[in-house]
């Protein structure tokens, strides 16, 4: 007999969370979503586009006794790779050599990814399980962004159990420096073009009319 799949609502909300939802009046609404199977568990086109355009995210793990840790992961757009409808992966680069994330995953595979898009005030939450792959050079190389100056140590595979989005409330709007520089360069180029057109018009002779 196949193992029973966990209820997606139970992945998002523990018994303690549900108790608080009940006390504060939101449990009934979330229970209806759970009953309809409304929680998302597979990568659709929207999530795929969001992830492949991300250049940064936060990766949360916990030790076997529950000690939490959040680590930032970044790279050029496209460094998060989609392997199938439930799996994403990325090359994990050499860093401060504390190996807290890897240690946590060796004893507790449950993990969480939080992706922010400040420019458009969007965020995505992803629950799942992750494990480290250290002995697959071909996979590591395939996941490395071309031309990116970083040294990969291993690969992290993340199996999605559920994902959800948040409303934009309270998200400050911020823009990447490269995007701001490109916008300013386009603006400056347009200003120069208009100034050149204006200068050319000023050099044209004024037509003389006779009465």
- Low-confidence sequence ranges: none
User: Number of DSSP strands?
Assistant: 7
How many angstroms does the end-to-end distance come to?
103 Å
Structural class based on helices, strands and sheet pairing: alpha+beta
Number of domains: 3
Q: How helix-rich are the residues, as a percent range?
A: 25-40%
Q: Mind telling me which CATH architecture of the largest domain this is?
A: Roll
The CATH class of the largest domain: Mainly Beta
Rg, rounded, reads 25 Å
- Overall mean pLDDT stands at 92
The ordered string of helix (H) and strand (E) elements is HHHHEEEEHEEHEH
Strand order of the largest sheet: 2-1-5-6-7-4-3
User: Quick one: overall form?
Assistant: extended
Report the sheet-strand fraction.
25-35%
CATH superfamily label of the largest domain: Electron Transport, Fmn-binding Protein, Chain A
What CATH calls the topology of the largest domain is Pnp Oxidase, Chain A
How many distinct helices?
A: 7
**Main sheet overview:** 7 strands, antiparallel
């Amino acid at each position: 007999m196949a193992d029973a799949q966990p209820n997606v609502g139970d992945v998002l909300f523990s018994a303690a969370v549900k108790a608080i939802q009940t006390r504060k009046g939101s449990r009934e609404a979330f229970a209806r979503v759970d009953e309809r199977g409304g929680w998302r568990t597979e990568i659709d086109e929207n999530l795929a586009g969001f992830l492949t355009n991300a250049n940064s995210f936060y990766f949360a793990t916990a030790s076997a006794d529950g000690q939490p840790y959040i680590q930032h992961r970044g790279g050029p757009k496209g460094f998060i790779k989609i392997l199938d409808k439930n799996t994403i992966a990325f090359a994990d680069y050499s860093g401060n050599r504390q190996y807290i994330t890897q240690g946590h995953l060796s004893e507790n595979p449950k993990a969480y990814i939080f992706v922010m898009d400040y420019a458009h005030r969007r965020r995505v939450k992803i629950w799942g399980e992750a494990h480290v792959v250290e002995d697959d050079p071909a996979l590591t190389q395939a996941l490395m962004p071309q031309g990116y100056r970083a040294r990969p140590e291993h690969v992290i595979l993340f199996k999605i159990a559920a994902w959800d989005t948040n409303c934009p409330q309270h998200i400050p709007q911020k823009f990447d420096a490269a995007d701001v520089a490109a916008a300013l360069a386009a603006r400056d180029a347009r200003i120069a073009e208009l100034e050149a057109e204006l200068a050319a018009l000023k050099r044209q002779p004024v037509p003389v009319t006779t009465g």
